[in-house]
Design goal:
Mean pLDDT: 91
CATH class of the largest domain: Alpha Beta
Largest sheet: 6 strands, parallel
Low-confidence stretches: none
CATH topology of the largest domain: Rossmann fold
CATH superfamily of the largest domain: P-loop containing nucleotide triphosphate hydrolases
Strand order of the largest sheet: 2-3-1-4-5-7
Number of domains: 2
Shape: globular
Radius of gyration: 25 Å
Structural class: alpha/beta
Number of helices: 15
Length: 375
């Protein structure tokens, strides 16, 4: 059985994808230090941790949950479970999971990002998950509803309050997400310090792993979401069609796209909430990795006088999106035609062998043909 379990709970947009790419990309280096990550991918872990009744929960989730617990129970060392889903768990869900591992010493690690970046990023993430809420309405909702789901996941005191019912408070660690100018590597070193890993000699990913949409692109997508009605529900139909064919192929990676930032009118209330978060973390200095004062980072580029998208901007972007989607369709069709052509050539070679080869090789060739057809 694992002697120690580290639960990295996210939340969203705090560098989780970057950290997960390191954890799953370096199994040998982890093993050298006595660590392992159960299951074979972040997706598998997230499915295993999905809440019953949620859109992502299925029979596969139940199987993966059993596999996850069994692997932790059967392997020695330190297990690392990393999923943003954990930041949304309620007390009952936490207790139910931990009851399956009563003899493992558990620790919780979560990221904290400055609110001037986190609030816009969370709106964009929700739109990419099929929300049709406008940016001004999102800001007003987060400002006026102290019990909103955003604060449930991103208020450190609330998150700590839920987990300390089951995990000793001194084993709950906050990692300050460095600002963009500091680079991702500093985040990895802080996470490693919080978990007891030696961060050296790991292969680190290059570039951005979870790209962002611009304000115009996000607003266009949220209007598309609103027009979908009941079509392409989440998770799989929406991801397979909208995310793959629209978001990833036509909306991401637009040169010079205007970033989604905080409007000037919302700066005061966000600053007040940020000061409260910094104060709460400073009171827990022993369990915080990084300086909470970094969260007060607020360069001019983090604020805009207006984030209003005009109809003209939307119309221009819609035309560009159609052109990009046409190129994507052309590329996809060319790849499919190439694959089909290669299959026809393989089949032709097999037919030639059947006609020219000696009789004793006929059955063997037929078996090969049937195996390739099945693939």
């Amino acid at each position: 059985m694992a002697e120690r379990l580290i639960l990295h709970v996210g939340p969203r947009k705090t560098g989780s994808t970057y950290l997960q790419s390191i954890l799953w990309g370096n199994p040998g280096r982890l093993a050298d230090q006595g660590f392992f990550v159960p299951l074979d991918s972040p997706r598998a872990q997230s499915l295993a941790l999905s809440v019953e009744g949620s859109a992502s929960h299925s029979d596969e989730s139940e199987r993966l949950r059993r596999d996850l617990l069994a692997e932790i129970a059967s392997r020695p060392g330190t297990a690392i479970v990393s999923s943003e889903i954990l930041s949304g768990w309620r007390v009952g869900e936490i207790r139910a999971f931990m009851a399956g591992l009563p003899d493992v010493r558990s620790e919780v690690v979560f990221g904290v990002r400055d609110l001037p970046r986190q609030i816009p990023a969370e709106w964009q993430q929700r739109v990419r998950a099929r929300s049709s809420l406008s940016y001004p309405d999102w800001l007003a909702t987060v400002r006026d509803q102290p019990d909103h789901a955003f604060w449930f996941a991103h208020d450190p005191e609330r998150l700590i309050g839920r987990w300390r019912r089951t995990v000793a408070e001194e084993r709950i660690h906050a990692v300050i997400v460095p600002n963009a100018a500091s680079g991702h590597e500093k985040l990895w070193h802080r996470f490693a310090e919080a978990t007891g890993l030696d961060p050296d000699h790991f292969d680190l990913p290059e570039g951005r792993l979870n790209g962002s949409l611009g304000i115009v692109q996000t607003d266009l997508l949220r209007r598309v979401n609103g027009a979908l009605g009941d079509s392409f529900p989440r998770p799989e139909p929406y991801h397979r069609v909208v995310i793959t064919s629209l978001t990833n192929s036509a909306l991401l990676g637009v040169p010079d796209a205007e970033r989604v930032v905080l409007p000037e009118a919302d700066r005061e209330w966000v600053s007040e909430r940020q000061a409260a978060v910094i104060g709460a973390l400073q009171a827990r200095w022993g369990q915080v990795f990084g300086d909470p004062e970094e969260l007060a980072w607020d360069p001019p580029s983090a604020v805009s006088h207006s984030m209003t998208v005009t109809d003209g901007e939307l119309a221009d972007e819609a035309v560009r999106v159609i052109v990009r989607m046409l190129h994507h369709i052309e590329k996809t069709n060319a790849e499919a035609e190439h694959t089909h052509s290669m299959q026809l050539r393989r089949n032709a070679r097999l037919r030639a062998r059947l006609q020219a080869g000696p009789r004793h090789s006929l059955s063997r060739t037929l078996r090969r043909l049937m195996a390739r057809v099945r693939r």
